[in-house]
Amino acid sequence: MSDGPTPARTIAARAVDLRKTYGKQEAEVRALDGVSIDVYEGEFTAVMGPSGSGKSTLMHLLAALDNATSGSVFIGDTELSGLNDKQLTRLRRDDVGFVFQAFNLVPTLTAEENILLPLSIAGRKPDPAWYDEVIDTVGLRDRLRHRPNEMSGGQQQRVAAARALVGRPTIVFADEPTGNLDSTSGAEVLSFLQHSVRELGQTVVMVTHDPVAASYTDRVVFLADGKVVDEMRAPTPETVLERMAKIQMRALETAAAAEGGAA
Ligand SMILES: Nc1ncnc2c1ncn2[C@@H]1O[C@H](COP(=O)(O)OP(=O)(O)O)[C@@H](O)[C@H]1O
Ligand SMILES: [Mg+2]
User: Fold this and answer.
1) CATH class in words for 43-70+83-262
2) Residue 27 Cβ < 6 Å to ligand 1
3) Is the pLDDT of residue 25 over 90?
4) Is the CB of 18 within 6 Å of ligand 1?
5) Cβ–Cβ under 8 Å, residues 197 and 42
6) Across the strands, what pairs with 210?
7) Is the Cβ atom of 71 under 6 angstroms away from ligand 1?
């Protein structure tokens, strides 16, 4: 068994030569400059990179929240550009969960109502066994009747994560989900996301700039200037920090060389 071939991993999402530009002519910004990435099912993947490197743009394109300038995106076997509006709406609703930095909960609804909102809108009921598993995993059973302003930031983000998971999407994207949290609350949310991957078999992609947050994941993909520049598996805070420093050094050298060439 142990020296047999590595089992083929199923791809949950894929980007192929993805490009995204904002603005026109002199004002043009190349946010993504040919990104190709495979996200494997049942893995927790981190995307890291300096501010402005294209992390949020990549998340939005992978989650079908925005259109690429060129290139293609697959969720499972489905290529997004082949879908009509109705199919896209269904895919966003059924196949993709999204967790935002700013929680985005509805203040007038209870935790339970917030978690069930996307399903309610779709006229669906949760699978009861899965719902129970998600609620226990987030550890919110005694908070279900509370409204967001009666909960800590960490609890609110766990509600947002439960909302993303409850429909059992193919993939969950989280854009700096711990960015607004103190380190204790951040650790709660990261543990929950990790647990949802390890114990519930979910697929999660998370943007972060925190090496400690990245160390909860299975794999880190590094972006710089709209390109994938590196990746690593089994990250630790130390190895991630070291790799980030290397990437930064390389960027400085490239900038210095460009300046030298221009002079
Ligand atoms: N809606 C937009 N209009 C114009 N430029 C944008 C827009 N969104 C992002 N950008 C630019 O694209 C680049 C990548 O942004 P973003 O994906 O938000 O990076 P990150 O999440 O890594 O900080 C940045 O230069 C940013 O200013
Ligand atoms: Mg961002």
Assistant:
1) alpha beta
2) no
3) no
4) no
5) yes
6) none
7) no
